[in-house]
Design brief:
The structure holds two protein chains of two kinds.
Chain A: H1 2-14, H2 22-39, H3 43-71, H4 77-99, H5 107-129, H6 137-158, H7 163-167, H8 169-181, E1 189-192, E2 195-201, E3 205-207, H9 209-233, E4 237-239, E5 242-244, H10 251-267, H11 270-288, H12 291-311, H13 313-323, H14 328-332, H15 338-350, H16 373-406, H17 410-434, H18 452-473, H19 476-481
Antiparallel strand pairs in A: 1-2, 2-3, 4-5
Helix pairs in contact in A: 1-2, 3-4, 3-5, 4-6, 5-6, 5-16, 5-18, 6-18, 8-9, 9-11, 9-17, 9-18, 10-11, 10-12, 11-12, 11-17, 12-13, 15-16, 16-17, 16-18, 17-18
Chain B: H1 3-27, H2 29-33, H3 42-47, E1 60-61, E2 88-93, E3 100-102, E4 108-111, E5 118-119, E6 130-135, E7 138-143, E8 150-152, E9 155-156, E10 161-162, E11 169-171, E12 174-179
Parallel strand pairs in B: 4-5
Antiparallel strand pairs in B: 1-3, 2-3, 2-12, 4-6, 6-7, 7-10, 8-9, 8-11, 11-12
The chains are: A mainly alpha, B alpha+beta.
Chain lengths: ~475, ~180
C-alpha cells in the first residue's frame, strides 16, 4: 500500500509514472487520507487558533488604549469594526482547516497583530487630526484590510497547489511588466508627491500596481530560475575565492537592472527599483548558491544609484536629506529633511518605553500614518515596542525562509524565500529610511502602513506562503512516514 | 484617567506585545529542537543502542568486511537488475564507502532527509533525492526532482530507468551499485 501511494505522489511531481491501474491509487490515497485525518487532530490549526485569539485581543486592547490615551473616553464604534476584522481573520482560519490543514500556524497570527497595530496607529492619527467617517484613513484601512483578507481567502481556495503557478511562469512575468508600465499610461496614471506609481479611475480609486507586481515577479523569477539555474551556476571562471559567471550568463541580471533603472528614471521611485533588483539578486543567489551574484548585484546597483544621484535631482535631494539632515538650510528647504527630522524627534521623544498609545504627538510628522508609521509607533510604544514589532517581522520572515528550506520542489523553495525576502527588504528599506540608516525611499511598511494596495499584496503573500507550507507537510515525504 | 493608570496600561500593553512574541517563539521551538523527542519504550531501548528515528524500509547494515568482495562477473555487465538477482546495495565511493544495504521488496528512498532509507548527507544531495523501486520485479531508479541529478552509468536520468547489475549510480558525491 505504501509502495503504491508513494509512486503516485512522486509521479504527480515528476509526471512520468503512469503504468499502474488508476483505481488502485484512488483507493489507496482515500485510505491514507482518512488515516492521516484520524492520526493528526489538527494540532497545528489549534495552535493557530489560540495565537489568533491572543492576536485579536491585542488588537482590540490597542484600539481601546488609543481612545483612552487620546480622548480619555471609550467609543465602541471602531472596536466593532475591529471585531469585524477579527471575524474575517477567524474566517480565514476556518477556511485553512478545510483547504490547508497542515499550513504553518504562525504566519496568520503575526500578520494579524501587525495589521491591527497599524490600524490602531492610523486611528490614533485620525483622532489627532479630527477626521472621522470615510475621510478617516483608519476606516479606509479597515475596509482595505477586509478586502485583503478576503483576497487571501480566495487565493488559498483557488490555488490548490502552488506548482500550478510554475506552469504560467512567463505569463506572470508579462503580467508584472504590464503592471509596472500601467502608471505611465496617460489617463489612468497618477503622480503623487513626485512618484508616478499610482493608477486611478477618475479621482475615485487609486491603486499602486507595483505592489501586486512584486508578487508576480517573485513567481516569475522563481519559475525562470528553476528552469535556467544550471547554466547560471555550473560554469564560470574562478576569481579570488569565488566563481564568477560567464559574461553571456549576465543577460538576465542586466535586463532586470535595466528595468530597475527605468523605474528610477521614469517613475521616480527608488524604493520599488531597489526592491525588485534586490529580490532578483537574492533569488539568483539562493538558486545558484554563488556569492558572486550578490557582489555583482550590489556593484551594479551601486553604480546605477551613483549615476542617478549625480543626474536626477530627486535622488540627489534624497541623498542630501540623508547625509546632512540636521543642517538648517536642508531642514527648511522645500522637500528638505523636515519630515525625516520630525520623525527622528518623535522617536527620541518616545524613548525606551514610549509616551503611551494616544499620548504622543506623532501627527506632527507629515505622512505619519503611512511612510512614517514606524516613527509614530516608535514615539508611542518606545524602543521596547519597536523591537517587539521588528521581532514579529523577523519571525514572519524566518517562517517564510524556513518554509522554503523545508520545501521539496525547487520552485516552491524559491518562491517562499523570494516572498519572505520581499517583506524583509521592505522592512529594512522603510525602517532604515526612517531611522536615517539609508536614504529614505518611498515604499510601504508591510501590514502597518496606511495603503490598500500594499495590504492586499501582503495578505496575498501570506496566503501563498500558507499554501506552500501546507503542500510541504502533505507532500511525498509525509506519505512515506505514514 | 490618572497618570498612574495610564502608565500601568502603557507598560501592560508592552508586556502583552512581548508576551505575544514569546508565545510565537515558544510555538516554533519544535522547529529548532526537532519534533517532540519521545523517549523510547523501555523494551525497545534495550535493543537499540543508537536511536533510529523511524523504521526505515531497509535498515543499513554495517559493512561485512573492510573491503567489499568483488562480485561483478565481467560477463554479466548488462544483466537487468531484478528481484531475483539482487540482494544488496553496495556503496563504492563516497564518505560511506563499503556500506551495504540489503534490499527486499520495498522501495528505498535516498536523500538527506532523516527518514530516507539511505541517508546521504553532503552538499550535492537533495532532501529527497532519488528512489529505488520495483516495477514488475525489475529494479528501477527514479530521480525525485533533485537539484544536482542522479546519474546512472554516468548519464543523468530524467525518468525512472532500469538498473543493470554492477552499473554505478551516482547521487551527490556517493556512488553505489546493485549486487547479487
Amino acid at each position: 500500500m505504501t509502495n503504491n501511494s508513494r509512486t503516485r505522489a512522486t509521479g504527480a511531481v515528476g509526471g512520468r509514472v503512469a503504468e499502474r491501474p488508476a483505481e488502485e491509487f484512488k483507493a489507496d490515497t482515500a485510505v491514507l487520507r482518512t488515516m492521516r485525518k484520524l492520526r493528526l487532530p489538527l494540532k497545528l490549526r489549534n495552535r493557530e487558533l489560540a495565537l489568533l485569539i491572543f492576536a485579536c485581543a491585542i488588537n482590540s486592547v490597542s484600539i481601546l488604549l488609543v481612545q483612552l490615551g487620546a480622548t480619555g473616553a471609550i467609543d465602541l464604534d471602531l472596536v466593532y469594526l475591529g471585531a469585524g476584522l477579527s471575524a474575517l481573520v477567524l474566517g480565514l482560519h476556518v477556511c485553512l482547516r478545510y483547504v490547508a490543514p497542515q499550513a504553518d500556524p504562525l504566519l496568520l497570527p503575526i500578520a494579524t497583530v501587525l495589521n491591527g497595530l497599524g490600524v490602531a496607529m492610523i486611528y490614533r492619527i485620525d483622532l489627532a487630526e479630527g477626521v472621522s467617517g470615510w475621510a478617516a484613513a483608519s476606516t479606509r484601512q479597515i475596509t482595505w484590510s477586509a478586502i485583503a483578507i478576503l483576497a487571501a481567502i480566495v487565493i488559498i481556495i483557488v490555488v490548490k497547489n502552488h506548482r500550478v503557478l510554475f506552469r504560467y511562469t512567463y505569463l506572470f512575468g508579462a503580467f508584472a511588466f504590464l503592471l509596472l508600465l500601467l502608471p505611465l499610461v496617460p489617463g489612468i496614471g497618477r503622480e503623487v508627491s513626485g512618484a508616478r506609481v499610482w493608477i486611478g479611475i477618475g479621482n475615485f480609486v487609486s491603486f499602486q500596481p507595483g505592489e501586486i507586481a512584486k508578487i508576480a515577479l517573485a513567481v516569475f523569477f522563481a519559475g525562470y530560475l528553476v528552469r535556467t539555474r544550471d547554466s547560471l551556476s555550473m560554469v564560470g571562471k574562478k576569481f579570488l575565492w569565488m566563481q564568477f559567471p560567464r559574461l553571456r550568463d549576465l543577460g538576465p541580471i542586466i535586463v532586470v537592472w535595466a528595468l530597475s533603472m527605468a523605474i528610477i528614471v521614469f517613475q521616480h521611485d527608488m524604493g520599488t527599483a531597489l526592491l525588485f533588483f534586490g529580490l532578483f539578486t537574492v533569488m539568483l543567489y539562493v538558486s545558484t548558491g554563488r556569492l558572486s551574484w550578490i557582489l555583482i548585484g550590489v556593484g551594479m546597483f551601486g553604480v546605477g544609484a551613483f549615476f542617478a544621484a549625480q543626474t536626477l535631482t530627486y535622488v540627489e535631494g534624497r541623498f542630501r536629506n540623508w547625509l546632512d539632515a540636521f543642517s538648517p538650510t536642508v531642514y527648511d528647504a522645500t522637500g528638505g529633511s523636515y519630515q525625516l527630522v520630525q520623525g527622528i524627534f518623535g522617536l527620541a521623544h518616545g524613548g525606551l518605553i514610549g509616551t503611551g498609545l494616544g499620548q504622543g504627538r506623532p501627527e506632527l510628522t507629515p505622512l505619519s500614518q503611512s511612510d512614517y508609521i514606524m516613527a509614530s509607533l516608535g514615539e508611542e510604544l518606545g524602543l521596547a515596542g519597536i523591537f517587539a514589532i521588528l521581532g514579529l517581522y523577523l519571525l514572519f520572515v524566518s517562517r517564510g525562509i524556513r518554509i522554503g528550506f523545508r520545501g521539496q520542489d525547487d520552485f516552491g523553495k524559491l518562491l517562499a524565500v523570494g516572498l519572505a525576502f520581499t517583506i524583509a527588504l521592505q522592512v529594512f528599506i522603510m525602517v532604515g529610511g526612517v531611522t536615517r540608516v539609508i536614504p529614505l525611499t518611498g515604499l510601504t511598511t508591510p501590514f502597518l502602513a496606511a495603503g490598500g494596495s500594499s495590504l492586499v499584496a501582503n495578505w496575498i503573500i501570506v496566503a501563498l506562503l500558507l499554501r506552500v507550507s501546507d503542500s510541504i507537510r502533505t507532500g511525498p515525504a509525509q506519505e512515506v512516514s505514514s | 484617567m490618572s497618570e498612574l493608570t495610564l502608565l500601568v496600561l502603557r507598560i501592560g500593553f508592552l508586556l502583552l506585545l512581548w508576551l505575544f512574541v514569546f508565545a510565537i517563539v515558544y510555538a516554533l521551538r519544535s522547529d529548532i529542537f526537532g519534533p517532540g523527542t519521545r523517549k523510547p519504550q523501555p523494551a525497545q531501548a534495550g535493543q537499540q543502542a543508537t536511536p533510529a528515528p523511524r523504521p526505515a524500509p531497509a535498515p543499513p547494515v554495517p559493512p561485512r568486511s573492510a573491503a567489499p568482495p568483488p562480485v561483478t562477473p565481467s560477463g554479466r555487465k548488462h544483466e537487468k537488475a531484478t528481484i531475483h538477482n539482487v540482494s544488496r546495495l553496495v556503496i563504492t565511493a563516497g564518505p560511506k564507502e563499503g556500506l551495504e544495504v540489503s534490499l527486499g521488496r520495498d522501495p528505498l528512498t535516498i536523500g538527506r532527509a532523516p527518514d530516507s532509507g539511505l541517508v546521504i548527507r553532503d552538499d550535492y544531495t537533495s532532501t529527497h533525492h532519488a528512489k529505488l523501486l520495483l516495477w514488475n520485479e525489475n529494479w528501477m531508479i527514479q530521480d525525485l526532482d533533485s537539484t544536482n541529478g542522479t546519474f546512472l552509468g554516468g548519464k543523468r536520468i530524467s525518468s525512472p530507468t532500469q538498473i543493470t547489475l554492477g552499473t554505478p549510480i551516482k547521487v551527490g558525491a556517493t556512488s553505489f551499485e546493485l549486487r547479487r
